Protein backbone atom coordinates (compact mmCIF):
# COMPACT_ATOMS: atom_id res chain seq x y z
CA UNK A 1 0.00 0.00 0.00
CA UNK A 2 2.68 2.45 1.14
CA UNK A 3 4.76 1.53 -1.88
CA UNK A 4 1.84 2.19 -4.22
CA UNK A 5 1.24 5.50 -2.51
CA UNK A 6 4.86 6.51 -3.04
CA UNK A 7 4.77 5.46 -6.68
CA UNK A 8 1.56 7.40 -7.24
CA UNK A 9 3.10 10.44 -5.60
CA UNK A 10 6.19 10.11 -7.78
CA UNK A 11 4.02 9.70 -10.85
CA UNK A 12 2.01 12.81 -10.00
CA UNK A 13 5.20 14.75 -9.34
CA UNK A 14 6.63 13.67 -12.69
CA UNK A 15 3.43 14.76 -14.47
CA UNK A 16 3.48 18.10 -12.67
CA UNK A 17 7.13 18.74 -13.51
CA UNK A 18 6.79 17.77 -17.16
CA UNK A 19 3.55 19.75 -17.53
CA UNK A 20 5.28 22.84 -16.20
CA UNK A 21 8.32 22.31 -18.40
CA UNK A 22 6.14 21.75 -21.44
CA UNK A 23 4.01 24.86 -21.04
CA UNK A 24 6.15 27.72 -19.71
CA UNK A 25 7.18 30.11 -22.48
CA UNK A 26 10.93 29.98 -23.12
CA UNK A 27 13.35 32.82 -23.73
CA UNK A 28 14.23 33.16 -27.39
CA UNK A 29 12.65 33.56 -30.80
CA UNK A 30 8.84 33.62 -30.96
CA UNK A 31 7.20 31.00 -33.21
CA UNK A 32 8.15 32.06 -36.74
CA UNK A 33 9.59 35.18 -35.09
CA UNK A 34 12.06 35.60 -37.95
CA UNK A 35 9.42 35.05 -40.69
CA UNK A 36 11.35 32.19 -42.25
CA UNK A 37 8.09 30.25 -42.68
CA UNK A 38 6.69 32.04 -45.71
CA UNK A 39 3.06 32.45 -46.82
CA UNK A 40 1.72 30.21 -49.58
CA UNK A 41 2.24 31.79 -53.00
CA UNK A 42 -1.56 31.93 -53.41
CA UNK A 43 -1.70 34.34 -50.46
CA UNK A 44 0.75 36.81 -51.95
CA UNK A 45 0.18 39.34 -54.70
CA UNK A 46 3.73 40.32 -55.59
CA UNK A 47 5.12 41.14 -52.14
CA UNK A 48 1.74 42.03 -50.64
CA UNK A 49 0.30 39.58 -48.13
CA UNK A 50 -3.33 39.06 -49.07
CA UNK A 51 -4.52 36.59 -46.42
CA UNK A 52 -5.03 37.71 -42.83
CA UNK A 53 -3.48 34.45 -41.53
CA UNK A 54 -1.10 33.89 -44.46
CA UNK A 55 2.14 34.20 -42.45
CA UNK A 56 2.32 31.14 -40.15
CA UNK A 57 1.81 32.08 -36.46
CA UNK A 58 1.00 35.70 -37.32
CA UNK A 59 -2.09 37.71 -38.15
CA UNK A 60 -1.78 40.80 -40.33
CA UNK A 61 -4.00 43.72 -41.15
CA UNK A 62 -3.57 46.49 -43.69
CA UNK A 63 -0.83 46.72 -46.31
CA UNK A 64 1.80 44.22 -45.17
CA UNK A 65 4.58 43.09 -47.49
CA UNK A 66 6.64 39.91 -47.29
CA UNK A 67 10.22 40.79 -48.20
CA UNK A 68 12.44 38.06 -49.62
CA UNK A 69 16.04 37.82 -50.85
CA UNK A 70 17.03 40.41 -53.44
CA UNK A 71 13.91 42.54 -52.90
CA UNK A 72 14.63 46.07 -54.10
CA UNK A 73 13.48 49.52 -53.09
CA UNK A 74 14.28 51.87 -55.96
CA UNK A 75 17.69 50.59 -56.94
CA UNK A 76 18.70 49.51 -53.43
CA UNK A 77 18.49 45.91 -52.30
CA UNK A 78 16.74 45.58 -48.94
CA UNK A 79 18.91 43.65 -46.52
CA UNK A 80 17.28 41.17 -44.16
CA UNK A 81 19.18 40.71 -40.87
CA UNK A 82 18.04 37.20 -39.91
CA UNK A 83 17.58 34.48 -42.48
CA UNK A 84 16.06 35.34 -45.85
CA UNK A 85 12.71 36.98 -45.02
CA UNK A 86 11.28 40.01 -43.22
CA UNK A 87 7.99 41.95 -43.30
CA UNK A 88 7.21 45.56 -44.05
CA UNK A 89 4.32 47.45 -42.47
CA UNK A 90 2.62 50.00 -44.71
CA UNK A 91 0.56 52.94 -43.44
CA UNK A 92 -1.61 51.90 -40.48
CA UNK A 93 -0.73 48.24 -41.04
CA UNK A 94 -0.10 45.87 -38.17
CA UNK A 95 1.04 42.36 -37.37
CA UNK A 96 0.14 40.45 -34.25
CA UNK A 97 0.83 37.17 -32.53
CA UNK A 98 -0.88 35.47 -29.62
CA UNK A 99 1.59 34.68 -26.84
CA UNK A 100 0.54 31.76 -24.68
CA UNK A 101 1.73 30.09 -21.47
CA UNK A 102 2.93 33.29 -19.83
CA UNK A 103 3.19 33.44 -16.04
CA UNK A 104 0.67 35.94 -14.76
CA UNK A 105 2.00 39.08 -13.02
CA UNK A 106 5.42 38.38 -14.53
CA UNK A 107 7.31 40.92 -16.62
CA UNK A 108 8.53 40.04 -20.09
CA UNK A 109 10.66 41.89 -22.59
CA UNK A 110 10.21 41.73 -26.34
CA UNK A 111 13.19 42.30 -28.63
CA UNK A 112 12.80 42.76 -32.37
CA UNK A 113 14.83 44.16 -35.24
CA UNK A 114 13.58 47.03 -37.37
CA UNK A 115 14.83 49.24 -40.18
CA UNK A 116 13.24 52.36 -41.56
CA UNK A 117 13.07 52.56 -45.31
CA UNK A 118 12.69 56.29 -45.93
CA UNK A 119 14.40 59.24 -44.26
CA UNK A 120 11.52 60.31 -42.07
CA UNK A 121 10.22 60.09 -38.54
CA UNK A 122 9.00 56.53 -38.52
CA UNK A 123 7.47 55.02 -35.40
CA UNK A 124 6.13 51.72 -34.22
CA UNK A 125 3.29 51.30 -31.78
CA UNK A 126 3.89 48.19 -29.68
CA UNK A 127 1.00 46.87 -27.61
CA UNK A 128 0.23 44.11 -25.18
CA UNK A 129 -3.05 45.40 -23.79
CA UNK A 130 -3.47 47.40 -21.69
CA UNK A 131 0.10 48.63 -22.20
CA UNK A 132 1.09 50.41 -25.39
CA UNK A 133 4.05 52.58 -26.39
CA UNK A 134 5.01 54.38 -29.55
CA UNK A 135 8.72 53.67 -30.13
CA UNK A 136 10.69 56.16 -32.22
CA UNK A 137 12.76 54.43 -34.92
CA UNK A 138 13.96 57.43 -36.88
CA UNK A 139 17.54 57.45 -35.58
CA UNK A 140 19.72 54.71 -37.06
CA UNK A 141 22.52 53.46 -34.79
CA UNK A 142 24.11 50.84 -37.05
CA UNK A 143 25.83 50.99 -40.41
CA UNK A 144 23.59 48.17 -41.70
CA UNK A 145 20.46 50.24 -41.06
CA UNK A 146 18.98 47.53 -38.82
CA UNK A 147 18.64 48.08 -35.08
CA UNK A 148 17.21 45.81 -32.43
CA UNK A 149 14.64 47.42 -30.13
CA UNK A 150 13.32 46.28 -26.77
CA UNK A 151 10.07 46.81 -24.92
CA UNK A 152 8.56 45.29 -21.79
CA UNK A 153 5.13 44.46 -20.47
CA UNK A 154 3.49 42.83 -17.45
CA UNK A 155 1.47 39.72 -18.24
CA UNK A 156 -2.02 40.32 -16.80
CA UNK A 157 -3.15 36.99 -18.25
CA UNK A 158 -1.44 33.83 -19.40
CA UNK A 159 -2.57 34.49 -23.00
CA UNK A 160 -1.93 37.91 -24.47
CA UNK A 161 -1.65 39.40 -27.95
CA UNK A 162 1.45 41.27 -29.07
CA UNK A 163 0.54 43.88 -31.68
CA UNK A 164 3.02 45.94 -33.69
CA UNK A 165 1.40 48.72 -35.64
CA UNK A 166 2.82 51.36 -37.97
CA UNK A 167 0.86 54.51 -37.13
CA UNK A 168 2.45 56.29 -40.13
CA UNK A 169 0.45 57.92 -42.91
CA UNK A 170 3.13 58.49 -45.53
CA UNK A 171 2.31 59.45 -49.14
CA UNK A 172 4.56 56.67 -50.35
CA UNK A 173 3.09 53.34 -49.20
CA UNK A 174 6.51 51.68 -49.67
CA UNK A 175 7.95 53.83 -46.84
CA UNK A 176 6.93 51.73 -43.87
CA UNK A 177 9.39 50.06 -41.48
CA UNK A 178 10.85 46.59 -42.06
CA UNK A 179 10.59 44.13 -39.19
CA UNK A 180 12.38 40.88 -38.42
CA UNK A 181 13.34 38.57 -35.53
CA UNK A 182 10.89 38.80 -32.63
CA UNK A 183 12.06 37.26 -29.35
CA UNK A 184 10.80 37.19 -25.76
CA UNK A 185 12.56 37.00 -22.38
CA UNK A 186 11.23 36.64 -18.85
CA UNK A 187 12.50 39.52 -16.71
CA UNK A 188 13.48 38.86 -13.10
CA UNK A 189 12.24 41.38 -10.52
CA UNK A 190 14.93 44.00 -9.81
CA UNK A 191 17.26 43.02 -6.96
CA UNK A 192 19.48 45.04 -4.70
CA UNK A 193 22.69 43.02 -4.40
CA UNK A 194 25.11 43.61 -1.51
CA UNK A 195 27.63 46.28 -2.28
CA UNK A 196 31.14 44.83 -2.18
CA UNK A 197 33.56 47.65 -2.78
CA UNK A 198 32.29 50.87 -1.31
CA UNK A 199 34.66 52.80 0.92
CA UNK A 200 32.08 54.01 3.45
CA UNK A 201 30.36 50.81 4.45
CA UNK A 202 27.61 51.41 6.97
CA UNK A 203 26.99 48.05 8.62
CA UNK A 204 27.61 46.32 5.28
CA UNK A 205 24.95 48.50 3.69
CA UNK A 206 23.20 47.41 0.54
CA UNK A 207 23.54 49.05 -2.81
CA UNK A 208 20.43 51.21 -2.86
CA UNK A 209 20.31 51.11 -6.65
CA UNK A 210 18.57 48.12 -8.16
CA UNK A 211 20.04 46.51 -11.27
CA UNK A 212 23.06 48.79 -10.75
CA UNK A 213 25.22 46.36 -12.74
CA UNK A 214 22.68 46.24 -15.62
CA UNK A 215 22.74 42.45 -15.57
CA UNK A 216 18.96 42.23 -15.95
CA UNK A 217 17.84 43.51 -19.32
CA UNK A 218 16.21 42.63 -22.62
CA UNK A 219 16.94 39.60 -24.80
CA UNK A 220 19.97 39.98 -27.08
CA UNK A 221 19.96 37.92 -30.29
CA UNK A 222 22.97 35.57 -30.41
CA UNK A 223 23.63 36.50 -34.05
CA UNK A 224 22.96 40.27 -33.92
CA UNK A 225 26.26 42.03 -33.18
CA UNK A 226 24.85 45.55 -32.71
CA UNK A 227 23.39 45.36 -29.17
CA UNK A 228 19.79 46.18 -28.27
CA UNK A 229 18.31 49.66 -28.05
CA UNK A 230 16.25 50.54 -25.01
CA UNK A 231 13.98 53.32 -26.23
CA UNK A 232 12.47 56.11 -24.12
CA UNK A 233 9.17 55.20 -22.46
CA UNK A 234 6.62 56.96 -20.31
CA UNK A 235 7.93 57.08 -16.75
CA UNK A 236 5.06 54.91 -15.54
CA UNK A 237 5.77 52.13 -18.00
CA UNK A 238 7.93 49.16 -17.15
CA UNK A 239 11.36 49.42 -18.73
CA UNK A 240 13.24 46.38 -20.10
CA UNK A 241 16.13 47.70 -17.95
CA UNK A 242 13.91 48.25 -14.94
CA UNK A 243 14.06 50.13 -12.65
CA UNK A 244 16.29 52.24 -14.91
CA UNK A 245 14.31 54.67 -17.05
CA UNK A 246 15.34 56.11 -20.39
CA UNK A 247 14.27 59.75 -20.51
CA UNK A 248 14.29 61.35 -23.95
CA UNK A 249 11.87 62.46 -26.61
CA UNK A 250 13.14 60.24 -29.42
CA UNK A 251 16.57 58.81 -28.59
CA UNK A 252 17.58 55.49 -27.05
CA UNK A 253 20.43 53.93 -25.10
CA UNK A 254 22.15 50.73 -26.18
CA UNK A 255 22.30 47.55 -24.11
CA UNK A 256 25.51 45.57 -24.66
CA UNK A 257 26.94 42.25 -23.54
CA UNK A 258 30.41 40.77 -23.22
CA UNK A 259 29.31 37.69 -25.19
CA UNK A 260 29.30 39.77 -28.40
CA UNK A 261 32.83 41.02 -27.78
CA UNK A 262 32.00 44.32 -26.10
CA UNK A 263 34.30 45.56 -23.34
CA UNK A 264 32.02 45.56 -20.30
CA UNK A 265 33.54 47.11 -17.14
CA UNK A 266 31.87 44.65 -14.72
CA UNK A 267 29.74 41.51 -15.06
CA UNK A 268 28.39 40.58 -18.48
CA UNK A 269 26.32 43.64 -19.49
CA UNK A 270 26.56 47.44 -19.65
CA UNK A 271 24.77 50.40 -21.21
CA UNK A 272 26.25 52.64 -23.92
CA UNK A 273 24.94 56.21 -23.92
CA UNK A 274 24.69 56.59 -27.70
CA UNK A 275 22.55 59.71 -27.91
CA UNK A 276 24.54 62.48 -26.24
CA UNK A 277 22.76 65.00 -24.03
CA UNK A 278 19.37 64.19 -25.51
CA UNK A 279 18.98 61.07 -23.40
CA UNK A 280 19.21 60.43 -19.67
CA UNK A 281 19.54 57.09 -17.91
CA UNK A 282 17.78 57.52 -14.57
CA UNK A 283 16.62 55.68 -11.47
CA UNK A 284 14.59 56.94 -8.51
CA UNK A 285 15.78 55.90 -5.07
CA UNK A 286 14.17 56.32 -1.65
CA UNK A 287 16.30 58.61 0.47
CA UNK A 288 16.15 60.32 3.85
CA UNK A 289 16.17 64.13 3.62
CA UNK A 290 19.35 65.56 5.16
CA UNK A 291 21.26 62.34 4.91
CA UNK A 292 24.48 61.94 2.88
CA UNK A 293 24.97 59.41 0.10
CA UNK A 294 27.75 58.28 -2.18
CA UNK A 295 27.11 57.36 -5.83
CA UNK A 296 29.86 55.39 -7.56
CA UNK A 297 29.93 54.13 -11.15
CA UNK A 298 32.19 53.10 -14.01
CA UNK A 299 32.44 55.26 -17.12
CA UNK A 300 34.41 53.92 -20.06
CA UNK A 301 34.14 52.67 -23.61
CA UNK A 302 32.74 49.43 -24.98
CA UNK A 303 35.75 48.58 -27.14
CA UNK A 304 33.59 49.15 -30.20
CA UNK A 305 35.68 51.78 -31.93
CA UNK A 306 34.12 54.82 -30.25
CA UNK A 307 37.19 57.07 -30.17
CA UNK A 308 37.36 60.53 -28.63
CA UNK A 309 37.02 62.67 -25.54
CA UNK A 310 33.98 61.17 -23.86
CA UNK A 311 32.39 62.46 -20.67
CA UNK A 312 29.63 61.27 -18.37
CA UNK A 313 27.79 63.68 -16.14
CA UNK A 314 26.03 62.22 -13.10
CA UNK A 315 23.39 64.10 -11.14
CA UNK A 316 21.74 63.38 -7.79
CA UNK A 317 19.84 65.85 -5.59
CA UNK A 318 21.75 69.18 -5.90
CA UNK A 319 25.04 67.47 -6.68
CA UNK A 320 26.66 66.63 -9.98
CA UNK A 321 29.99 65.35 -11.22
CA UNK A 322 31.58 65.29 -14.64
CA UNK A 323 33.74 62.26 -15.38
CA UNK A 324 35.91 62.75 -18.47
CA UNK A 325 37.23 59.69 -20.26
CA UNK A 326 39.65 59.62 -23.19
CA UNK A 327 38.57 56.72 -25.34
CA UNK A 328 40.80 54.84 -27.73
CA UNK A 329 37.78 52.71 -28.60
CA UNK A 330 39.52 49.59 -27.28
CA UNK A 331 37.83 49.21 -23.88
CA UNK A 332 38.68 50.52 -20.42
CA UNK A 333 36.98 52.65 -17.77
CA UNK A 334 37.43 55.03 -14.88
CA UNK A 335 35.43 55.20 -11.64
CA UNK A 336 33.30 58.24 -10.90
CA UNK A 337 32.14 59.30 -7.44
CA UNK A 338 29.49 61.78 -6.33
CA UNK A 339 28.80 62.54 -2.67
CA UNK A 340 25.54 64.39 -2.10
CA UNK A 341 22.98 65.20 0.58
CA UNK A 342 19.41 64.20 -0.14
CA UNK A 343 16.71 66.81 0.36
CA UNK A 344 13.67 64.67 -0.42
CA UNK A 345 12.14 61.25 0.22
CA UNK A 346 13.10 60.26 -3.25
CA UNK A 347 16.22 61.14 -5.22
CA UNK A 348 16.64 60.70 -8.95
CA UNK A 349 20.07 59.45 -10.00
CA UNK A 350 20.79 60.50 -13.59
CA UNK A 351 23.56 59.71 -16.08
CA UNK A 352 24.03 61.71 -19.27
CA UNK A 353 26.68 61.58 -21.99
CA UNK A 354 27.97 65.11 -22.50
CA UNK A 355 28.63 64.95 -26.24
CA UNK A 356 27.58 63.32 -29.48
CA UNK A 357 30.30 61.05 -30.74
CA UNK A 358 30.54 59.03 -33.93
CA UNK A 359 32.41 55.97 -35.00
CA UNK A 360 34.46 55.75 -38.19
CA UNK A 361 31.40 54.40 -40.03
CA UNK A 362 29.30 57.43 -39.08
CA UNK A 363 27.11 55.72 -36.48
CA UNK A 364 26.40 57.29 -33.10
CA UNK A 365 28.31 56.08 -30.07
CA UNK A 366 29.28 57.20 -26.59
CA UNK A 367 30.54 56.22 -23.15
CA UNK A 368 29.46 53.04 -21.37
CA UNK A 369 28.03 53.11 -17.85
CA UNK A 370 28.28 50.12 -15.56
CA UNK A 371 28.56 48.94 -11.96
CA UNK A 372 26.65 51.80 -10.32
CA UNK A 373 26.11 51.82 -6.57
CA UNK A 374 24.57 54.14 -4.03
CA UNK A 375 25.24 53.81 -0.30
CA UNK A 376 24.48 55.95 2.74
CA UNK A 377 27.34 57.96 4.25
CA UNK A 378 28.00 58.37 8.00
CA UNK A 379 26.26 61.38 9.51
CA UNK A 380 29.48 63.34 10.07
CA UNK A 381 30.13 63.21 6.31
CA UNK A 382 26.56 64.26 5.54
CA UNK A 383 26.93 67.31 7.82
CA UNK A 384 29.97 68.38 5.81
CA UNK A 385 28.04 67.98 2.55
CA UNK A 386 25.20 70.12 3.85
CA UNK A 387 27.52 73.03 4.79
C1 LIG B 1 -2.56 42.29 -57.45
O1 LIG B 1 -2.34 43.66 -57.23
C2 LIG B 1 -2.57 44.46 -58.42
C3 LIG B 1 -2.10 45.88 -58.08
O2 LIG B 1 -2.62 46.32 -56.86
C4 LIG B 1 -4.03 44.39 -58.79
O3 LIG B 1 -4.27 45.17 -59.93
C5 LIG B 1 -4.38 42.91 -59.05
O4 LIG B 1 -5.76 42.80 -59.31
C6 LIG B 1 -4.01 42.05 -57.87
N1 LIG B 1 -4.17 40.65 -58.23
C7 LIG B 1 -4.94 39.82 -57.54
C8 LIG B 1 -4.98 38.41 -58.01
O5 LIG B 1 -5.57 40.16 -56.54
C1 LIG C 1 -1.40 51.81 -30.53
O1 LIG C 1 -2.06 50.58 -30.75
C2 LIG C 1 -3.07 50.29 -29.80
C3 LIG C 1 -3.61 48.91 -30.06
O2 LIG C 1 -3.74 48.64 -31.41
C4 LIG C 1 -4.15 51.38 -29.87
O3 LIG C 1 -5.12 51.14 -28.89
C5 LIG C 1 -3.49 52.74 -29.63
O4 LIG C 1 -4.47 53.75 -29.79
C6 LIG C 1 -2.39 52.96 -30.62
N1 LIG C 1 -1.71 54.22 -30.30
C7 LIG C 1 -1.35 55.09 -31.24
C8 LIG C 1 -0.70 56.33 -30.75
O5 LIG C 1 -1.53 54.90 -32.43
C1 LIG D 1 8.04 62.39 2.61
O1 LIG D 1 7.07 61.38 2.82
C2 LIG D 1 6.08 61.77 3.77
C3 LIG D 1 5.20 60.56 4.05
O2 LIG D 1 5.25 59.62 3.05
C4 LIG D 1 5.32 62.96 3.23
O3 LIG D 1 4.33 63.33 4.15
C5 LIG D 1 6.25 64.10 3.00
O4 LIG D 1 5.58 65.17 2.42
C6 LIG D 1 7.40 63.67 2.09
N1 LIG D 1 8.39 64.73 2.06
C7 LIG D 1 9.01 65.09 0.95
C8 LIG D 1 10.03 66.18 1.10
O5 LIG D 1 8.79 64.57 -0.14
TrEMBL record:
Domain DUF642: 28-185, 208-372
Pfam families for this protein: DUF642
Gene Ontology, cellular component aspect: extracellular region
UniProt entry tagged with the keyword Cell membrane: no
Cell compartment(s), UniProt: Cell envelope; Secreted
Residues in the signal sequence: 1-21
Keywords carried by this UniProt record: Glycoprotein, Secreted, Signal
InterPro entries in UniProt: DGR2-like_dom, Pectin_Meth_Modulator
Name of the protein: DUF642 domain-containing protein
Native source species: Digitaria exilis
Amino acid sequence: MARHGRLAALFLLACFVSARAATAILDGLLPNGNFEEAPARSELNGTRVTGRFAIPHWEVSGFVEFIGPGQKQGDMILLVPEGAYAVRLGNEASIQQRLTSLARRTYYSITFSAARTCAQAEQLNVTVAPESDVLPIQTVYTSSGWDSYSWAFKARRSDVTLIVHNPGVSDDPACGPLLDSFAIKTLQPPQRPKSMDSFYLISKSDNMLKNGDFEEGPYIFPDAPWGVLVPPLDEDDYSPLSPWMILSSTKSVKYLDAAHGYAVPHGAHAVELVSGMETALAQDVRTVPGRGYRLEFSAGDAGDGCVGSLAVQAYAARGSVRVPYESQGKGGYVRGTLDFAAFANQTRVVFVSMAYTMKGDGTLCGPVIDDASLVGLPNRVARRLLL
